[in-house]
Amino acid sequence: MAYDSVKTPAGSREDALGGSATFFSVSGSYFAPVSVVAVVGEDFKDGDVKLLKNHGVDVSGLDRRPGKTFRWSGVYGAEDVNTRDTLDTQLNVFADFAPELSLEQRKSPYLFLANIAPELQMAVLEKMAERPRLVALDSMALWIDISAEALERIIRKVDVLFLDETEVRTFTKHSNLVEAARQIMAMGPSAVVAKRGDHGVLLFHGDSIFSAPAFPLEHVIDPTGAGDSFAGGFMGYLAATGDLTTEGFKFATMVGSVMGSYAVESFSLERTASLTKDEIESRFRALTDLTRFTSLGENESLPFQGGGAAHA
Amino acid sequence: MAYDSVKTPAGSREDALGGSATFFSVSGSYFAPVSVVAVVGEDFKDGDVKLLKNHGVDVSGLDRRPGKTFRWSGVYGAEDVNTRDTLDTQLNVFADFAPELSLEQRKSPYLFLANIAPELQMAVLEKMAERPRLVALDSMALWIDISAEALERIIRKVDVLFLDETEVRTFTKHSNLVEAARQIMAMGPSAVVAKRGDHGVLLFHGDSIFSAPAFPLEHVIDPTGAGDSFAGGFMGYLAATGDLTTEGFKFATMVGSVMGSYAVESFSLERTASLTKDEIESRFRALTDLTRFTSLGENESLPFQGGGAAHA
To answer: Is the pLDDT assigned to residue A21 strictly greater than 60?
Structure first.
């Protein structure tokens, strides 16, 4: 959990509530019970804890420590809002974070390991009383650069890997995304979710590939938290339905995309934390409609020149 | 029409058959009769004319002039095959190109103005005996930079604009793609086709937005000609069916995406010129399947926590 100071083409915010665990928890809470493990400092506001509680998030695993909450500040590109520069990172209480899990948390059937050092992700997984039904992992370029081996060790133990498309390529050293995803799945995960910012998501699950569009937004305010909100919707849907088939993963990818699209429509969690069921569902239907068209029937053929036969 | 020398991560070719008109004509020829207007030099190979003829392309408008055929050479990025650097451009006979249209060509109901100087595109349009049923235009960053006013004049007169997504933004000076496309449609075109390389295509048609996925290729050999092959499939489908409704445009976008995906699987027109009906149709179905999943029924609801009501 974090306080973020961000500047985007749409404006700026100082010390606004952020952090992977925050976006994930609130997003996922629309669909399933969420229990969080995170560290905050003495400066973490009661109102922010209340916001989580109001969404039914179990905050008993919120570890409040002497010192300040993790802080990040960054600037998003004016030309391409998908690119950002980090101005400052202050680890603060996060520097000594040693995740502790309650007895109940150790039995969670669905586990999301948010983007932290892969060694800490492994420590959390090893604390589980039994192997969860589904373990998903998020990471980023930093860990590929400085902890590639530890990252590989934890990737071998999870079911779902969320990464930006470029990170999938960097991690595997494959320029081709299809080959790169196959290589990761050969290591263990049954699914790779390659995120493409405002170009959508490519889901690899077993032999299937699914392309989820991004919702075309007229007003992108702040991309911070989009990936974690995606993960929250994705895992929330799977936890709610228990459907771990390819169809379930496709549906989860669409739900995640909806939640990611709302996250970027405001600074901090302003939009994510104030959604209604109708808003989520109507965007879900609109997102589905984006790729719908009247395709060929089983016995129909494309209108080839020369009566249905290609002339080559 | 051109001879291209390209270098890609997959290899290289010297003086291989290329050019917008070439890729467009061969791609479109699978679906509808194509008549080409283009200039070539004395060095243009008989075999290359024959390739067009074998695809039923009417080459009577192929203007053979003293001098050499247009030549382009470039290198595609090893990290990101969507980016390319031009090494050399030799206009040759293209420098004095003044498109001439036959009486029959002047009556074509479907007109594609390939990527050349907007003044020449306007000259072709003005030569038409009557306003075609559908006029589509392709352009590129160069003309936005050096001929923005002439480009705007021709855009105001066409129905469909094909541009890379970044060019849509640059041309309109709108960073948001949805707003940018709306601005272009307010100028006249009923459709904007924003191309996103291997991330697919966003079609804006009236109030509708359609997201076509890109076919995830394992082996990208040479991106040259992908956009013109897309346009060929797109226009070929519309000319074959005459369906200018939103559904027709969506379908055309999918057909175009299929043809673009084949273009990049080989150097030059090796793949594009040797496709079978079965190959085109099976990839069309695979492309459709990429975005298909069992979505919500009309009376179904997302699995919200708390029995179908969001808790916010």
So the answer is: yes
Query: Which of B270, B291, B301 is the best substitution to test chain A (most A C-beta atoms within 10 A)?
Result: B291
Q: Which residues of B touch A290 (CB under 8 A)?
A: 209-211
Query: What is the distance of C-alpha B41 from the center of its chain?
Result: 24
- Please state, for a pLDDT cut of 70, what percent of chain A lies above it: 98
**For domain B2-289, is the CATH number 3.40.1190.20?**
yes
Task: Report the C-alpha gap between A228 and A34 in whole angstroms.
Answer: 14
**pLDDT tens track for B103-138:** 999 999 999 999 999 999 999 999 999 999 999 999
Contacts of A146 (CB under 8 A, 6+ apart): none
For residues A267-289, average pLDDT: 97
Domain spans of chain A? Answer: 2-289
Tokens for B33, please give them.
């009769």
Closest residue to B290, CB basis, from A179, A209, A281:
A209
Rounded CA-CA distance A277/A283 in Å is 10
At residue A270 the predicted structure's pLDDT band, cuts being 50, 70 and 90, is very high
pLDDT at position B310 is 45
pLDDT the model gives residue A77: 85
Residues A118 and B79: their CA atoms lie apart, in Å, by: 26
pLDDT in tens, A183-242: 999 999 999 999 999 999 999 999 999 999 999 999 999 999 999 999 999 999 999 999
Q: Do B30 and A79 touch (CB under 8 A)?
A: no
Test A310 with B280 for CB contact under 8 angstroms: yes
Average pLDDT value over all residues in chain B: 95
